[in-house]
Amino acid sequence: GAVVSQHPSRVICKSGTSVKIECRSLDFQATTMFWYRQFPKKSLMLMATSNEGSKATYEQGVEKDKFLINHASLTLSTLTVTSAHPEDSSFYICSAPRSTGLNEKLFFGSGTQLSVL
Amino acid sequence: GDSVTQMEGPVTLSEEAFLTINCTYTATGYPSLFWYVQYPGEGLQLLLKATKADDKGSNKGFEATYRKETTSFHLEKGSVQVSDSAVYFCALSSSSNTGKLIFGQGTTLQVKP
Q1: Sign of dihedral through CA atoms B72, B34, B36, B15?
Q2: Peptide bond before residue B113 is cis, with ω within 30 degrees of 0
Q3: Cβ within 8 Å, pair B99-A41
Q4: Are B102 and A95 within 8 A, CB to CB?
Q5: pLDDT band at A1 (very low <50, low <70, confident <90, very high)
Q6: Mean pLDDT of chain B
Q7: Average pLDDT of B65-93?
Q8: C-beta separation of B14 from B111 below 8 A
Q9: Mean local confidence (pLDDT), B18-41
Q10: pLDDT-based confidence at B96, cuts 50/70/90?
Q11: Chain B residues in contact with chain A using a Cβ-Cβ cutoff of 8 Å
Q12: How do strand B75-77 and strand B62-65 relate by DSSP bridges?
């Protein structure tokens, strides 16, 4: 079963509204989570690294004030797209690393398709 | 910067056909290479990986060999099944931050009975 839950799977909103996407690690704690964005027929691009208890680390070119990330607990990270516009329409996906002994494996949520009208 | 290029899809095959999805990369140093698969309605799952040159990753009948000389990591399967229908992503990681993956654009595979 899924070990990382992402919600909602799909959201349609009006331009100017804010949208919150949640990413939960279901049976493990994640001090770090990652947020990606995928444009149609393009690669998944890392947007930011979410850190529990501290500020997120954003990749170059990602607007911090547009994409607010909050790592509220060891099992929850949220991405808020503020004042969304049609150009923010995209597929957003989160991931969390889980250590299993000496190895670390990355688990992904099922993604959120955001459509801004 | 580092990048990954995959063959464009969709790829449509009949059941039991041979599959190849090409993947080439550009990176400094010695990256780790991955193939992820996303089944409809599910999250990405790690399919296989290779961490150094000439390593072969394999899982569920899929294989990929890390070819440093051609900077490639092509995914192959000898006989595909309908259940293999999914989107396949090639990715690399060149840092100790395992979450900082650089992905290709994904290739959709559709297998028809």
Answers
A1: positive
A2: no
A3: no
A4: no
A5: low
A6: 92
A7: 96
A8: yes
A9: 92
A10: low
A11: 4, 8, 36, 38, 41-46, 89, 97-106
A12: antiparallel
Whole-number Å distance between alpha carbons of A117 and A109 = 24
Long-range contacts of A27-31 (CB under 8 A, 24+ apart): A27/A3, A28/A3, A28/A75, A28/A96, A28/A98, A29/A74, A29/A75, A30/A74, A30/A75, A30/A77, A30/A96, A30/A97, A30/A98, A31/A74
* Pick from A2, A43, A46: CB nearest B100: A46
- Among A36, A38, A39, which Cα is nearest to A4's? A36
Question: What is residue B29's predicted lDDT score, i.e. its pLDDT?
Answer: 81
| Cα angle A32-A88-A48, degrees, rounded to a multiple of 5 | 20
Query: Predicted confidence band at B97 (pLDDT cuts at 50, 70, 90)?
Result: low
Buried/exposed B46-73: b ≥16 CB within 10 Å, e otherwise: bbbbbeeeeeebeeeebbbbbbeeebbb
Average pLDDT taken over every residue of chain A: 91
Report whether B107 contacts B8 (CB < 8 A): yes
Nearest to B50 by CA among B86, B90, B79: B90
Q: Which residue has the higher pLDDT, B93 or B77?
A: B77
